Automatic annotation (TrEMBL):
GO terms for molecular function: oxidoreductase activity. It comes from the Bacteria. The keyword Zinc-finger does not apply. Residues 5-155 form the NADPH-dependent FMN reductase-like domain. This is Oxidoreductase. InterPro entries: CE1759_FMN_reduct, Flavoprotein-like_sf, FMN_Rdtase-like_dom, NAD(P)H-dep_FMN_reductase.
Length: 205
């Protein structure tokens, strides 16, 4: 059985980068979960920082450089994608968006995608839902239910149910789609009906 192709797109600007660190952890988690099922995975990492000039030139000339073209072909041929961006001004980075602007608009159709982001504060975690998820929905990708956000404080935490738990859950959902099964969210958070929340607020007044 041929190994599955997993492409990881990471838009960190510094080296080392927390965005690259999160990308690596997600890729490793997906690889482990599929290995447990006897499936091999070829992981290809695309560092957008190294393609910044090529991406800009593509907008001006209308043609990708050989290096950029090779990465665009890798995205198109992938069985699944992990896309990770730093959050700037409550949204994805310009470099991240520019790369997906030059990806063919049919390349991600039906392709499983795990979205993730890094930022300095947990307040920006909703950027995954109001910026990244709609963008990949527009590109007709199949985005897994769990998105992973890592704030600066997450890296030092001992977190069985924090960052590590979110990584494992999202990786499991992507692995299921790569293995040909519908992705299911394994979240165990209790959902409290709105009427019950409203009644509790009234009782406090």
């Amino acid at each position: 059985m041929n190994p599955l192709k997993l492409v990881v797109v990471t838009a960190g600007l510094t080296q080392p980068s927390s965005t690259r660190l999160l990308s690596d952890r997600l890729g490793e988690a997906v690889t482990r979960q599929l290995a447990d099922e006897g499936r091999g995975v070829d992981v290809h990492v695309i560092e957008l920082r190294e393609l910044a000039v090529d991406i800009a030139n593509n907008f001006v000339t209308g043609f990708p450089s050989p290096a950029l073209n090779a990465e665009l072909e890798a995205v198109t041929a992938a069985d699944a994608l992990i896309a990770v961006t730093p959050i700037f001004t409550a949204s994805y980075s310009g470099l991240f968006k520019s790369f997906f602007d030059v990806v063919d608009n049919t390349a991600l159709t039906g392709k499983p995608v795990l979205i993730a982001a890094t930022g300095g504060t947990p307040r920006h975690s909703l950027a995954l839902e109001h910026a990244l998820r709609p963008m990949f929905a527009y590109l007709r990708a199949v985005v897994v239910p769990t998105a992973v956000y890592a704030a600066a404080e997450d890296w030092g935490a001992a977190d069985a149910e924090g960052l590590s738990g979110r990584i494992a859950r999202a990786a499991g959902e992507l692995a299921e789609l790569m293995a040909g099964r519908p992705a299911t969210s394994h979240a165990t958070d209790e959902v409290i009906p709105f009427e019950q929340q409203l009644a509790a607020l009234r009782a406090q007044q």
